[in-house]
Design a protein that fits this description.
Four copies of one chain form a homotetramer. With 307 residues, chain A is an alpha+beta fold. Chain A folds into two domains: 145 residues, Roll (Urate Oxidase), CATH 3.10.270.10; 156 residues, Urate Oxidase. The first copy, chain A, has five helices and 13 strands. In chain A, the strands form three sheets. The first copy, chain A, has an eight-stranded antiparallel beta sheet, covered by helices on one side. Chain A has a two-stranded antiparallel sheet with strand order 5-6. In chain A, strand 2 and strand 3 form a beta hairpin. Chain A is globular, with a radius of gyration of 24 Å. The two termini of chain A are 30 Å apart. Chains in contact: A-B, A-C, A-D, B-C, B-D, C-D. The interface between A and B is large, with 71 and 70 residues.
Chain lengths: 307, 307, 307, 307
């Protein structure tokens, strides 16, 4: 047989699980999208169609829902760790499990007046609006010995309306761009950071707090950097996280440059003093880089956008 | 000629305009997506291709950007009023202008520590993150005499994790649904309300405050209604707005019932005590209705979803 | 009570049904997305939450699947007619049913070599690839007496690479556009045509053939019209259908002008002789109009895009 | 400095270029979406914001359009090779260029009647409809010495309405799935194959023919395989390509299992004899694997879907 099987994985993708936890009248929501990918002794199913080693993807789906009850959902990362450990330790042919999770955040609906004539104000303890800002993501991989946890976020759209310049670049025969000394800098942040927790013997990070802090440092660095290039801003965002959070060794960003072009209003006898912009869709600059703690080996995949 | 021309309109759609207003160091953002549709004496361009009455769509785009400078963007509604008045009053063949606007909200990035070592905390006066929650929408129509302003929002996802029931419904031979005495009620609110401001002689509403208040009442009614059906909740949301805001005469909702199905965990020996749900995508219930002030004639189009 | 209920409707939206019909070894696919909207005596459910008149949306979903078995799916229109008639005639509180259907087309996979060494060539009688071109749509409305059938298509992207001009238009102070004497004309056709079949006493059109012919005439008119404006092309597309198909009385189009801008290559010492274009996303011109048989009353809704 | 810069790349993404080639009256279209990513001596721009080594992303965009004129677009692959070679060879700080291209196919509009009364039938030589089926993709990488070309397609939706089974799988405590002896097998094919052309000294493949043939073999294998698992079908699709096309050494697939669930019609007294299916959206099985020529080293990235 001149062809052979290479890396392979399978599982149920995008299991949408919502978990309500009741603390008296006060409810809490965890809203996740969980994808399971399993690898191991899977040659036969590819070569002959024998499913003797195949736990059905339907079963991996059932396990997600059952585990939401059995273990609860303390955090996306902790939930993924329960799932990955289960598949690798309970199924002999499975040697590696990769759990990917998206998390959607909700906030409580505020009825600030407090003088509802319909039902007591207490009732809003079960009413929520979905925050649309970013999507939190996490990937947990386990091979029976070592853990790899990569967390992050996507679609966090940010803008600085000043304190950004772009000049002093290379000019070749195809260069027509004019230098800019005061421009809008805007991007949709996509970031993935890798934790240095890799073993059950280590103390596990506080996943919820770590997320919140990494996000905060990233936003602060974005806001506070006087930017000469989006690359410089990216590096500041990454190094701020590495410097502030000892549990994180590496972070990769994929940052589209959401171009806001100053509209030429001179044909209409108007001066555009950095006031009116056209927000363009495509094309866009795309800046991607890894920032890591000196001495560690990079492991976050380079491709965060796909061919 | 056995065929004739019926209603027609044209213009430039989805002009993305971002306006930065500088109040000293503090910047303000208005981020709009503006679509222009013009109607009038347009038979010739359809029958023969003569453009003698056609103001180019490119010109309508330019006008959007020029007006952002000339008039500023006080509110989406006010901006649309400037545009609609201009097209109808300045172009003889144009008898009617309809301006549709989507508005995207931004919030300031907070650097709560305040002890940045890079740049002064003041700098965040120009740094923003885009709120992803709902999209605010508005439609302004003008025929040279009367105004019609319909405003609203879409994609505001809300959930009550209890206080919802569904029972006592019709059962026919195709009915298999089990009655529910405690279910999740979730929807993506799409609402359009019509203002009773129709003439330049009337005092114009405070568009920004009206939006904020209508949204608040709608959310409160959603949170506070003990629901026996999504229709009942819808009606409460609508009547709360009509009762609270005298400038609004009519509101139409399109509310998908975002089904959250309780997962059957019994095969795994587990009891699901309203804890673990599967959030389904399709199909979904879709509840649509108009609520209006007694005595007024409904004018918001019935079809908020399209064929 | 100062507020009242206006027009309202409800039902299950986006029921995805795939029907396989076996003609010996040869299989046939119908792949539909069916949305049900019912209206009638529904005041109580809005005012008090009483579901006594409410057939559950879940039941309307079940009916779609049961009818695919009981009646088969001869065409989207015929299937919608079965459903609409059922809801109105079997449920006393239901006075009006509106069925919307999207249909996705499939074509057989060709194994042209015919010398497969795995399985007989006959086997491809059950193998299909989904055509991605347009989505066929239909809306069937029934009030117990009269039928309204509106069919059409969306997302049919077409382009003429020449034979399009645009000049002789109005110039105001915001006009900067240069006249064009040879441009690309491209659009995503969205069309809805209304049949004059309205009663069970009339002979029903051949829905499948009518769709195929209307589509053909529309494409031919697009291809063969030397265009001085997209409006002119639109009118030709519509009148060709009305003139050729006596069963159709009215058609409405929503045609974005998919701008293809000639790239300025002069800065690089190159001449762009109508060769290299930038395909823009937003903004876009949007041309919408109804073409109808002389003497008939227009009924297709004006708004094919939503606020 | 405790943090360092890792892998990084930048460029303009999603440059939409449409090239019209005139062969007398007959026009030809190439419709591409081109993304450029450059790497090299880029430490300074990240650390200090100095753009001294940075060719602007705007220039990379201009180059795409200029090259469409200067070199034409013989194929996506050949166009990418021109671009990658240019950036690496003309810019000293650039050591590696990666060009990604999506290609959209068009077909000529047929006016089969041939008796148009408007304009001669010849005119359709410039009229096109966009085929919506799959999107062709390609990624060309060059480091100044070696080439890597990975091509493929995405969103090719296929279905076998029979000749698929699934049974004999592992059952654990979370398994509830019933075995299936005749099911629908449907997927959206996403495939990336790597060419063994790596050097200018080698004879270049015929990219257009190779794509067409690889696509054909893949579809045939899908249609002709009697499937006991989607993994088995995947392997047949891959090995058919490797065995038939000597220029291709490796192929990776990401195949969602587009579930079509047989609807239970028994509650309505109906028997569903593999006729009526519910086409589900989420969750879905996801099967991913590489098939490669024996002895070659796999290089196509494992992650075709992203975290």
């Amino acid at each position: 047989m001149p062809t052979i099987l290479g890396q392979n994985q399978y599982g149920k993708a995008e299991n949408r699980v919502v978990k309500i936890t009741r603390d008296g009248d006060t409810h809490h929501i965890k809203d996740l999208n969980v994808s399971v990918a399993l690898s191991g002794d899977m040659d036969d199913v590819h070569y002959s169609g024998s499913n003797a080693n195949v736990l059905p993807t339907d079963t991996t789906k059932n396990t997600v829902y059952a585990f939401a009850k059995e273990h609860g959902i303390e955090s996306a990362e902790q939930f993924g760790i329960h799932l990955a450990r289960h598949f690798v330790s309970s199924q002999e042919p499975i040697h590696r499990a990769r759990i990917r999770i998206e998390e959607y955040a909700w906030e409580r609906i505020v009825t600030s007046d407090g003088n509802s004539k319909f039902i007591g104000a207490d009732e809003v303890k079960h009413s929520f609006a979905r925050k649309g800002m970013e999507t939190r993501v996490s990937q947990i991989t386990y091979d029976g010995e070592r853990w790899e946890v990569i967390s992050g976020l996507k679609d966090l759209t940010v803008m600085n309306s000043t304190n950004s310049e772009f000049w002093g670049y290379v000019k070749d025969k195809y260069t027509t761009l004019k230098e800019a000394y005061d421009r809008i800098l805007a991007t949709d942040v996509s970031a993935r950071w890798r934790y240095n927790w890799t073993s059950d013997e280590q103390r596990m990070p506080n996943w919820e707090k770590s997320y919140e802090q990494a996000r905060k440092h990233m936003l602060q660095a974005f806001a506070e950097t006087y930017s000469l290039s989006l690359q410089q801003t990216l590096y500041q965002m990454g190094s701020r996280i590495i410097n502030s959070r000892s549990e994180i060794d590496e972070i990769r960003f994929s940052l589209p440059n959401n171009h806001h072009f100053l509209v030429d209003l001179e044909p209409f006898g108007l001066k555009n003093d950095n006031e009116v912009y056209f927000a363009a869709d495509r094309p866009y600059g795309l800046i991607e880089a890894t920032v890591l703690r000196d001495g560690v080996e990079p492991k976050v995949p380079v491709d965060m956008t796909n061919l």
